[in-house]
């Protein structure tokens, strides 16, 4: 058994196992490639940027969505980070303990809670995000600007299709 199959080995094995089923192999290959690329970027970013801060990928994503929206109600933060509200609760607790995030009760509805970055959390994001963006630039570095635009457009169409399916 292989320790870490390459992309080509994975695609070959996939073709051998599903080709006889009469499925849309190109669609399966496309979605598999999206998943594999996302995991590769996530692992690379975690190792190079987030690990030195003992910050998980999920913690970074939560901080990022709260940062770009300048605070969010917890339900919206969980949705934006694509995690459950229960997962968000644990992540926020950890980020609060590190002094990077704070919870604020809403005056208009005490059942709702917003989360905001502290000054220290904003400083961390201003330090981390340029390093994270350098990785983003590096991983698409072999693509032309046109290819990057086409890829971005295609991936947005996938997201829009899913969003419309869920409505």
From TrEMBL:
Keywords: DNA-binding, Transcription, Transcription regulation. The keyword Transcription regulation applies. This is MarR family transcriptional regulator. SUPFAM superfamilies: Winged helix' DNA-binding domain (SSF46785). SMART domains: HTH_MARR. InterPro entries: HTH_MarR-typ, MarR/SlyA-like, Transc_reg_Sar_Rot_HTH, WH-like_DNA-bd_sf, WH_DNA-bd_sf. PROSITE patterns: HTH_MARR_2. It comes from Paractinoplanes bogorensis. Residues 27-160 form the HTH marR-type domain.
């Amino acid at each position: 058994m292989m320790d870490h199959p390459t992309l080509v080995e994975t695609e070959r094995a996939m073709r051998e196992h599903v080709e006889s089923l009469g499925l849309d192999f190109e669609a399966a290959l496309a979605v598999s490639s999206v998943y594999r690329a996302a995991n590769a970027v996530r692992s690379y970013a975690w190792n190079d940027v987030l690990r030195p801060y003992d910050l998980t990928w999920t913690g970074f994503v939560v901080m990022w969505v709260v940062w770009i929206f300048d605070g969010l109600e917890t339900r919206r933060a969980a949705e934006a980070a694509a995690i459950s509200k229960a997962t968000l609760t644990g992540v926020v607790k950890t980020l609060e303990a590190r002094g990077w995030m704070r919870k604020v009760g809403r005056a208009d509805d005490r059942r709702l809670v917003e989360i905001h970055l502290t000054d220290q959390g904003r400083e961390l994001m201003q330090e981390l995000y340029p390093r994270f963006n350098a990785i983003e630039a590096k991983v698409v570095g072999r693509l032309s600007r046109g290819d990057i635009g086409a890829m971005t457009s295609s991936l947005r169409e996938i997201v829009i299709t899913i969003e419309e399916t869920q409505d």
